[in-house]
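Re: your question from the hallway

Yes, I did run it. Sequences:
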Amino acid sequence: MQQGIKSRPIYSRLRVDPAGSRHLAVSDQCPFPRAAFETPLDDLEFWVVSSKSVEGNAVFPEATGLLAALEARLLRETAGLRLYAVGTESFIWDAANTARRVGMAEDEVFLAQAGSLHRRIYCTHCKTMIENVNTNLTPCLGCGATLFVRDHFSRRLAAFMGIQADAEEPGILPPLQTLYP
Amino acid sequence: MQAEVASLENLSADLRLIRFKPLDKPQFPAASAGAHVVLALRAEQGTWRNPYSLTSRPGARHEYSIIVRRAGASRGGSAYIHDRLKKGQVVSLGGPNNLFWPATTARKHLMLAGGIGVTPFLSYLAAFAETGSAYELHLRCRGAEEAAFANLLFPWRHAHVHPTGRSSGFDAPKILSRQKLGTHLYLCGPDSFMAQMASAARSLGWPSSRIHQEFFGAPASGQPFRAVLARAGLTLHIGADQSLLDALEQAGIDAPCLCRGGACGQCKLPVLQGEPDHRDHFLTPQERARGDAIMTCVSRARSGELVLDI
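Structure:
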């Protein structure tokens, strides 16, 4: 369903920024989605999320651990570093927000979507986050409302907005569809 | 607005601090860190309008202060301020405007100044003291002015003065390469100084969004030329030491302007004929090549005549 949202981020293929002097690429996937780049990936440092160890990469069992290590790393870094985040939309914006917290500018951080289209949903009624939603409707784990998954994406929250689906006519819901594989 | 010269203080042979108090209003407008005013001085040769960074504390409303350096090749404004401006004299001030504000999201502010280019940073330092922001300032200056600048910067712990011609520890690449991510760089000084510093920063990987430059300085002189004002039906003769904007203003033309340093883009006028000599920092290389617009505050003519759509 087209929801007419014009503010959704649009991603294009990444280029290694020649103005940068050091390059760090992070992903919540493994192996690293190299196809997200259209330039050669020499001299990049790769961080990925995986339960197994992978050669040539820093491997984190969970995305949250990677993001915590990323923040600690960025706080020590000096000017010249470029950050590339590739992966699910919620992960890449979590990484972008980490970078923003340490003062990185928009021309130092580059994002591309790869892998699953599952959505993180923010309940606009009780502020609960619901991870890995692939349908147009989802129950809120906080307040129990049945949420309609909007295309409205918040970069700050790294999540799509969920609003009560039967607010007008309680109990009347659109058919359940799997939309975000 | 009208202001009265409240005091004049010579900081060195070529640096003069001028304090103003408001005259036609009870208070000056509050200015933010990095703001400038345009000081208009009337003398028999004409009127000079020069932008000066406010060195008073941001938000100060009972007093504005500026520091003026006697320019070697002056259009006359700075010489007038040094030789003839008197306490109690009434002057007119335009602004304040700000085209060089500190980034609020910066984790730290690194300021590199060349000589009198330190002036906008005096208001930055006061603002950073209030917010407790991290900062570091390095000033490169002539040996003769070291003492005056050191006095001005005395209250600020992380401000350093480096006189030229002596090994003084001013190593721009070293200073730039040790800065943490999230540091913003501000440059103010002679064009060559800013170009050198900006290029050192870029080669270390600083992104352009974290490099800020203040383009000030009097418009450089050049060949005299004629400006034909198509709509006003006037022809102006622009002297070697006069800017096109000054000439327009003296002819009573209501020409747009703001920074008077070729940076802000406000004074852009369409060129109908003739070849401009672009000296601004605003037009893109493509716009320059088209030659159909000119920034009147600093740019001149390559051809003997320019026809302007005003």
